[in-house]
Every structure is written in C-alpha cells, then in structure tokens.
Amino acid sequence: MRLSRRSFLQSTLALAALPAVSQAMSRPPQAEYSGPWAAVPGILAAIQRPQIPAREFNLKIFGASGDGSGDDSRAFAAAVEACREAGGGRIVVPQGKYRSGPIHLVSNTELHLQEGAVLSFIPEPERYLPAVKTRWEGMELMGYSPLIYAHGCQNVALTGKGLIDGGADCDTWWPWKGENTKCAQSSNDGDTQHAARRALFEDAEKGVPVAERLYAGGSYLRPPLVQFYECRNVLIEDVTLENSPFWVMHPVLCDSVTVRGVTARSHGPNSDGCDPESCRNVLIEDCLFDNGDDCIAIKSGRNADGRRLATPSENIVIRNCRMRDGHGGLVLGSEISGGVRNVFLENCVMSSPNLERGLRIKTNAMRGGEIHDIYVRNVSIGEVKDVIVINFFYEEGDQGQFDPQVYNIFVDSLRCQQAQRAFHIRGFARAPIRGLHISDSVIEKAASLGVIQEVTGLTVSKVAINGRPFQPG
C-alpha cells in the first residue's frame, strides 16, 4: 500500500473500542525470542566480555595524589605502560579526585574507577595532541585525541562506579560548535568548527588519504569523551560520564561491544550518549541517557567516506534502557551511508519534555544507506514531541544520487502518553519506505497525527491514537 504525498490528517477514525490495545504492554520483561527475535540469543552469544589478566595496578603507586590538586596525566600513562609490559591487567583508580589529559588504553587492559573516584579531564585542547586517527561526524581524519581512547586493541574495558567528567562547558570545547542555545555567548564568531568542517567534507568527497586529513590543533573539531577504534571485545560498564566535548561514547569499527549500566549525562552540543558506528555485535543495556543530542544513535559513516569503508552497523541489541532529554531516544543516522541492519530494541522507557523524538531514522539522497530489519517492542514513552520519525529529507534532503533503501521496520507494543505529533514519515516517491509495520500500540494523546508519505507495504494492527482505533487513509 502506497500512501500519497498528501497528509493523512483528515483520515476518518472509527469510533469502535479497541480493547486488545490496552494489553499491548503486558509482556514480561524478557519476552520470548521467537520469529525474527530468535536472532537475539545468537547475537548475544557472539559478544565476548574482555579477558583481562588478574593483576591490578593501583594508580596511586604511580604517583597520583587523589586530592584533585595536581595533574595526574603521568601517573595514568605510567600505569598503562606497566600494564602493557606485564601483558595486561586492571588499572584501579581509588576513591579520590584526579585530573588528567588524554588516556590511551592498550590491549588486555581495564581502567576501573572505584566508587567515589572522580576523574576530571583538563579542558586545555593543546593537551589532546598529537593527532590520532579518529572519526568525526562519519569521516575519518587525524584529529584531537578522544579523552579516553584505544586504537587497534582487543580486550579493553572502562568500568567501575566512579564519575568521569569531560570538562566541557560554555567556556571550553562547546563554543567551538559556533551556535548552542545552552551557551548564550556562543555564536558563529570567534573560534568555531565551521571552516574545518567544510574542508573535511571536501577532503572526504575527494578521497584525500586519511593520513593527509590533518584536523587537530587550530581546526576546532571537538573530540568524543570515549572512543574505541578498530577494537575487539570492548566493555564500558557502570561508569557515569558527564560534560563531553562531543559525542559521549563512540565505538568505531569495533566487533563485540558491551555498554552496560552506564549513565551518560551531557547537555552540550552534539552530546550524543552512545553512537556505535560501523560496529558489529553490540549490546547496550541497563543504561541511563540524559543528553543534549541523541540518546543512542547508530551510524556507519557519512557520504563518500561511509561508502569507501562500506561497513554497516549490524547485530545490535538494546534493552532495559532509560532515555530522558535528547533529540531522539533510538536514532539511526544521519551518518548512515554504510548501512544499518539487525537492530533489536526492547523494554526501554523514554520520557522528558526535552525529548524530541522516540524512534527516528534520518537520512537523505547524499547519505543513502541500506537500513533494514529494525525491530522495536515494549517501549514506554511518557512525554515526547514526535513518536516515530523516518525522514529522507534530513539536511540536504533530495539533493544527491544515493537514495536510501529503508525496509522491514517493525514497531510492536509501544505506548506513549503524550506527543505533539504521532508520525513524521517521509520517503521518496522513487524510493519509498518498504515494509513499515506498527502493531499493538497506543498513543494516548497526540496533538497531531502528522504525516505518512511514500510508504509501500504499510501495516497497522491494533493501534489506537487519542482513544480511537487508527488506520491511515
């Protein structure tokens, strides 16, 4: 069934009751893994916890005071080197306050912050040089070091009940965005990312070798707080992460990633909570996201650079998470040129006056991307602006030669209490969204139904909006 480009706001709604919908959220927390969901146990079995040797290195042995008065960068570097020489182990950060520049982890190593430990990164950009290989808005480059970074490692972990403060605020890092309503003094004047961002886009489109894309000092492209790059068997567990310069957690080109029990709380510009990019076999569970941008955003590279690497994000399980502030709860895109497939989200709660969208796919004719087999069930949304968004007209919109291919999207057992708009779903007439299925779901109050345009294979079963059964006309 293809809907015309006209809005369905005037669609006739039947007046009959829909008693089956009231039971839509009655599944137990761990619903049966059958049908397409039968793939989940296999994905979980493929995700390996890092194997860390049973030896510990207390940071204070390497000269850290823990009183928050000094610079503990050398102590962290010495502890990492001791781990490397020993063949791996756990770096224990005891209760106390610590300050540091960038920390580069190595294989078979865990950075563990005990409860009561606070690690604050020193907000002096020159400390995050020399440049390292990284990815920024979906493009590879040589840029500022992420605050916690590992490249080409296996068995690497960041754990513990401690707090990690990225040190970004309206005086440092965030103003480089150039505009940010949370920082009144920020504008397009002064030191901003705009010129370097444009130049990096051009380099990526031209195929300039990554080693020659030099965008560190003087380019103002902010680093993420935690980035594991081309790593295998990655664990981020229990820590609280605040005040990130850019994206909070950013695993890139990784295989076997677990993010569990993490609180990601950062309200600066582009403060996405967790962005697995071109990653395979990922579990995100029991986390709290409270962010200035997307809570979880699954990505796979931007435009030519994403197509060059041609590495999708795939086999991703998200469960038992809470999403508060953010541009979106679960988001796919917008850097999505390498594609996304086999995503399973269940048993999540989303709610905030500052949460803009519940579920969102954002792409366009320059990003493209093949996005398919996305399964969402048992989602409770309190207050949100838009419930479900699939938008091919993000940013550049219909101005490229790479039509997105979006198909097999399933949303089941979703309940939303209050929304400004139920749907904003817009494909291309020449490349419609194929196979969007919404079932057993309730939106109790929606000020507007919104739009569904250019969709084939749309099915709606036992869906109620504003107390009445919904069928798009």
What does this structure look like?
With 473 residues, the chain is mainly beta. It has one domain (19-469): Pectate Lyase C-like (3 Solenoid), CATH 2.160.20.10. Helices cover 9% and strands 41% of the residues. It has helices spanning 39-46, 73-86, 194-206, 303-309, and strands at 56-58, 89-93, 96-100, 103-104, 109-113, 117-121, 132-136, 139-143, 148-151, 154-160, 163-165, 214-215, 226-229, 232-237, 240-242, 255-260, 263-266, 280-285, 288-291, 296-298, 313-319, 322-323, 330-333, 340-350, 357-362, 370-391, 405-426, 433-453, 455-465, 468-469. The strands form three sheets. The chain has a 24-stranded mixed beta sheet that branches. A hairpin with a 2-residue loop joins β7 and β8. The longest helix is centred in the first third of the chain and has 14 residues, at 73-86. The protein is globular. 52% of the residues are buried. Mean pLDDT is 93; it is low at 1-30.
CATH topology: Pectate Lyase C-like
Shape: globular
Category from helices, strands and their pairing? mainly beta
User: Main sheet, how many strands, which sense, barrel?
Assistant: 24 strands, mixed
Which bin fits the share of residues in helices? under 10%
- Quote the average pLDDT: 93
CATH superfamily: Single-stranded right-handed beta-helix, Pectin lyase-like
Strand content bin: 35-45%
Assembly state of the chains shown? single chain
Gyration radius, rounded? 22 Å
Helix tally equals 4
Separation of the first and last Cα atoms: 10 Å
The CATH architecture name reads 3 Solenoid
What's the number of structural domains?
1
Low-confidence stretches: 1-30
Quantity of strands, as a count: 30
CATH class: Mainly Beta
